[in-house]
Amino acid sequence: AAASWDGLYDGLQKSGEVRLARGEVVDGTREDVSGYCRELMDAIGARYTINAPIHVGDLFWGVLAFDDCETDRRRCDEEKAAVVAAAQVFGLAIHRHRTQQEREALE
Description:
Blueprint: H1 5-14, H2 17-21, E1 26-29, H3 35-44, E2 48-56, E3 59-68, H4 77-106
Antiparallel strand pairs: 1-2, 2-3
């Protein structure tokens, strides 16, 4: 079966989504993953992936993912922290936008 974004979501539900929802970074090389996640990595030529959760308020909203198609080098804690920080910025921006829309709707 060909890899698809729906398949990746299904794979995350079965494996990493719980960890992501708890706020954990999920990363690994293509040898570390299986199922749909591996199919997708193979389809795009990714050798390493790092996924950080995006939370909007208390809601697990989505995932910020970066794939490395050139090397399977594991990332250090500082690099992982940078991805987490970027995901937090996205979450805060979405929250701010929603709050602003709610205020405008009340006016």
